[in-house]
């Protein structure tokens, strides 16, 4: 369910003589490399040593992209010591203090579709196609490297949010669409956004994304590959039935006209209380719960109360994940994130 919205470089002299061609120069101040000669070519050095083989600079290996945002990004901020928001109790009550948490992801199918918001990993060089947007003035124009067979939330015949997420590991970018439908050789969508996972840049104030909050969906998904490492190191995307107008950093978009101060805003951060016991939970559920204690959850869209988002995966143990349903709204508290803000145009924390 979703509310409508609008949304270095000095190259050694000898290396040049050696014909390093189009290879990029090493970073400024970098060593010429083991084996590089410090004496004129063909000559001897001050100690009478003859010429050594000239090293040819090599390209630095590309930094692997595992889908994590920068370490100083707000999604990865530890919120265990942040103060409780002055209206925490009222906001939690408006969401549903007695309502149970629901992991909206898992293994297997529900009504013929995978459970969760799927991610399509695309190879380097994936052909980019055009996307026609309903809210083009708040969408990144593209083109987008989304294949015709990209996975759609809810399945090809779904009539819900129909999110499509393409993860380009080589470029370390995610391309996200809301209400996406194949159209000819491309796609049609309500809105879309491109996020560079190496950057802390936020969308312009007032802009939506594929999520009502203007945030990345991918950034807040629980993914099995993270849990398999034993920990999740970021906040988790959550939906609530109703928000008030305006938005809380790092969100950039509002999707409500309600003015009740007891309602949360999009972008509001909550955390699982430290007093809530999680040690007896099955491992998969415990790792998720521990992340909600340390990094919290971020209100990203309208939907059912306390639904946390994840990507479907055959390795999920649905019985283990159901342990998260033992948590209720009263186990959470809203935190005040204002002390983290370095700039309202950036997701970097101080």
Automatic annotation (TrEMBL):
Biased composition (Low complexity): 26-43, 53-63
Signal peptide: 1-24
Region (Disordered): 26-64
Entry keyword Signal: yes
Domain of life: Bacteria
Transmembrane regions listed in the UniProt entry: none
PROSITE patterns: PROKAR_LIPOPROTEIN
Keywords for the protein's UniProt record, in alphabetical order: Signal
KW Signal (keyword) present: yes
Protein name: Sporulation and spore germination
Source organism of this protein record: Asanoa ishikariensis
């Amino acid at each position: 369910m979703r509310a409508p919205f609008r949304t270095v470089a000095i190259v050694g002299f000898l290396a040049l003589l050696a014909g390093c061609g189009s290879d990029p120069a090493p970073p400024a101040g970098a060593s010429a490399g083991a084996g590089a000669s410090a004496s004129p070519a063909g000559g001897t050095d001050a100690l009478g040593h003859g010429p050594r083989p000239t090293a040819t600079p090599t390209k630095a290996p590309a930094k692997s992209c595992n889908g994590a945002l920068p370490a100083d990004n707000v999604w990865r901020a530890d919120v265990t010591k942040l103060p409780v928001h002055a209206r925490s109790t009222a906001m939690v009550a408006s969401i549903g203090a007695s309502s149970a948490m629901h992991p909206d992801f898992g293994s297997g199918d529900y009504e013929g579709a995978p459970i969760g918001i799927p991610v399509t990993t695309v190879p380097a060089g994936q052909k980019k196609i055009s996307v026609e947007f309903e809210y083009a003035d708040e969408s990144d124009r593209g083109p987008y490297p989304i294949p015709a067979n990209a996975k759609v939330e809810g399945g090809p015949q779904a009539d819900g949010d129909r999110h499509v997420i393409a993860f380009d590991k080589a470029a370390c970018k995610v391309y996200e669409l809301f209400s996406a439908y194949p159209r000819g050789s491309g796609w049609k969508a309500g809105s879309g956004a491109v996020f560079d996972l190496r950057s802390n840049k936020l969308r312009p104030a007032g802009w939506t994304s594929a999520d009502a909050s203007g945030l990345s969906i991918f950034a807040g998904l629980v993914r099995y590959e993270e849990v398999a490492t034993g920990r999740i190191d970021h906040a988790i995307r959550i939906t609530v039935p109703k928000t008030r107008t305006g938005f809380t950093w790092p969100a950039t978009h509002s999707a409500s006209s309600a003015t009740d101060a007891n309602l949360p805003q999009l972008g509001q951060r909550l955390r699982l209380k430290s007093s809530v016991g999680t040690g007896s939970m099955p491992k998969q559920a415990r790792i998720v719960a521990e992340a909600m204690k340390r990094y919290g959850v971020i209100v990203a869209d309208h939907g059912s109360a306390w639904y946390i988002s994840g990507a479907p995966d055959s390795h999920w143990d649905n019985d283990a994940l159901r342990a998260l349903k033992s948590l209720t709204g009263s186990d959470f508290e809203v935190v005040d994130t204002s002390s983290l803000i370095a700039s309202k145009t950036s997701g970097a924390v101080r």
